[in-house]
Description:
Protein-Tyrosine Phosphatase, Chain A, globular
Amino acid sequence: MAIIGCVMNIVDSGPRTLATIHRDRLLQLYRRPKFGKRVGNHRMTRWIDRLRDRFPSTWPPVIGVVGSNGKGSTAAMVHSILSQVLHNVGRYTSPHFFDFRERIRVGSADVTDSELGLALDWLDRQMKSAADDKDSDPTTAFECFTVLALFVFLHAQVDTIVAEAGMGGRLDPTGCLHPAAVAFSSVDLEHTEVLGVTLEQIALEKAAIAHPGATLWLGAMPKDIVDVVRSFCAFSQVIVRQAPFCDKPVLGDSGQKMDIVVGDRMLPGVFVPLLGSFQAQNASLAANVAVDVLQRLWQVSETRCVDAVYRGLAATSWPGRMQLVCQTPPVVVDVGHSPDAVSQAALGVVELAHKRPIHVVLGVSANKPFAQIVAAVVPAAHSFYCTRARHRGAAEDLILQTVREMSPQKPAVSFPSVAAALEHAIYAAINDNGIVWVAGGFFLAAEATAVLRGVELDMELFY
């Protein structure tokens, strides 16, 4: 149901209906293991070989995107900039916000049912011929999704591929594509059970996606982390560059303007239709990576590159990251699911609120450090409406208890459904001219947006 009294700020109506036959086949892939039984890229390497047999001509260059936070936004920006010059650019990102087809984009459109069907047909035939299900170390779900994306891109004969890593870098399936350039957006403590328990370990796991001869572009990160990455890459013969820091973006109603340095040239007044001052760093990184690739691989002139940066960043769309989904009262949803990402979002929400009360719809995934995430939200909040996303959400009463322990003086209640929490938060914002911030996790942001649009999420196809 749509929330009564909320004037939506979104033009499109939400997810399209996925063909039933495709949904059933994707559901079978979702049921495959999340991680392989043996650590390594051997499974994905076999699939690369099969794809090369199917598409023996020269493959398009790949731009990889890694990072703890901001990699999705950065991938969307790089794709948009490149698309101003190149005819057909593929983009592979994850997870999707509403619809699986969002993950695979060709040019300006998500993959069609017919294109996805061709890829699923080929994957199914290959699995049967290779007896993949009988393998002691079968292909994982994310490896299958990556294979589908590659088939679509190769069949469409894209000019280049922008590929966001799912997790880490060194062992991520996208690393098998040997990207010519890699954008490394940020590093934070996340997936510590797989990537390592320190920022240095996690940074090296992500940086290791870059192979000898590639260029690794770094976003804003601590100097000690940059030094560790540079030392590692010097040994592995990877070129390291850092995107210039982008300072003091100017916030507007529909985005922000900023001055970006690309190479030795200042680009003043670049508009990015995304909220949150942290997007300025992502924009700087994306612009520098895209221009580097356009000049190095396609010999595009500086003039055309500059024009592509202006037009590409202005055309960027990325759902869920500091997205204003409702205008009256303002409702901002944010997919940030690490303490640092939520802290950055909090700064943006405070700036957007202009001293108005901030009513937080708060939910955290059960496998995330919810106490640290709650702590990142508390300073900005006027009141809390604790809830749980249907997918992986931690118990709302546990979140409520944590809120009350950290901030006993602020009003806080819990609700068993996202819809109920949203409704009460929106009424509160209407009554005191406040704003609503949906915070704490990706799946909460997607479910909240679906509730506001009055559409249903397919919970079985949702990671």
